[in-house]
Design brief:
By secondary structure, the protein is an alpha+beta fold. It has one domain: Alpha-Beta Plaits (2-Layer Sandwich), CATH 3.30.70. Helix content is about 25%, strand content about 35%. It is built from 2 helices and 4 strands. Strands 2-3-1-4 form a 4-stranded antiparallel sheet. The radius of gyration is 14 Å and the shape is globular. The chain starts with a strand and ends in a 5-residue tail after the last strand.
Length: about 100
């Protein structure tokens, strides 16, 4: 199993709207992707900036390629992200899951 992690920052004033967008648009897209096991959205407010982490779990790297394309290190963005994100981090990170409960 592979974990894929993306990080983004939004102005805290837009965090609620971004949270709604992610839950209504991004999560459903992940859930129908072949090989996706689960998706988790993490949020942490830090003054005027709110951090979001998208943590997804996949069966294998081929499943991630089916979702993200051949260069699985590149982050994927929606057109609507321009309304919220302060910058567009180029890469995501992957981890092999070596333990779970």
């Amino acid at each position: 199993m592979i974990a894929r992690m993306w990080h983004g920052r939004v102005p805290t004033s837009k965090a609620g709207a971004y949270r709604e967008f992610v839950n209504s648009r991004a999560i459903p897209d992940y859930r129908v992707a072949r090989g996706n096991i689960s998706v988790h959205i993490l949020e942490r407010a830090e003054g005027d900036i709110t951090h979001f982490i998208t943590l997804t779990f996949w069966e294998d790297l081929e499943s991630i390629k089916g979702f993200a394309g051949d260069d699985i290190e590149l982050a994927k963005y929606y057109e609507e992200d321009k309304e919220y994100l302060l910058e567009f981090e180029k890469n995501v990170v992957h981890y092999e899951v070596v333990g779970q409960s």
